[in-house]
Write a structure and sequence with these properties.
Distance between the termini: 70 Å
Strand order of the largest sheet: 1-5-4-3-2
Strand content: 15-25%
Structural class: alpha+beta
Radius of gyration: 17 Å
Length: 153
């Protein structure tokens, strides 16, 4: 009688230290922070949150084209320009600074991740993700209304 194979367990993507661009943190990779800052960004979509309050499902085509256009513009910059020179617009957001809704969703979909990088695309619109080695940003959320990290007035 042949042995039964165990069902394959779902693959959980392994991500590098989400704070890899933060000078106060040491990257979990052999790539130095300085070398990442001198790279052009690229995007990986394997962690896109399709559901939830910041999910990508149901976005109108025109909005997706605008997001794509902004990301293409960022590809012409280096991470140094995005992270350092535009630090007032693009920066890490700790889970403690996020809305309760965002905190709960992040803990559910990416347990153990305690910060995301916020990339400003429009006045209120932000892409949130994790910056990995080689300057790759794992895109997670689209927040068109500044709800992940509301501004306190």
């Amino acid at each position: 009688m042949a042995k039964r194979k165990k069902p394959a367990s779902p693959k959980v993507p392994q991500v590098a230290d989400p704070g890899v661009l933060s000078p106060a943190k040491r990257p979990a990779t052999a790539v130095s922070v300085a070398s990442i800052l001198d790279m052009h960004p690229s995007w990986r979509l394997s962690l896109l949150d399709m559901d939830g309050p910041f999910g990508w499902v149901g976005l109108p085509g025109e909005e997706l084209r605008e997001i794509r256009g902004k990301l293409v513009e960022y590809e012409g910059l280096m991470w140094r320009e995005i992270k350092v020179e535009q630090a007032d617009r693009n920066h890490l957001i700790s889970i403690q600074s996020m809305s309760p809704e965002a905190q709960n969703r992040l803990r559910k979909i990416l347990p153990g991740v305690d910060e995301l990088f916020s990339l400003r695309l429009t006045g209120k619109g932000r892409i949130f993700g994790i910056i990995q080695e080689r300057g790759v940003m794992l895109v997670v959320w689209w927040d068109p209304g500044h709800r992940v990290c509301p501004v306190k007035k």
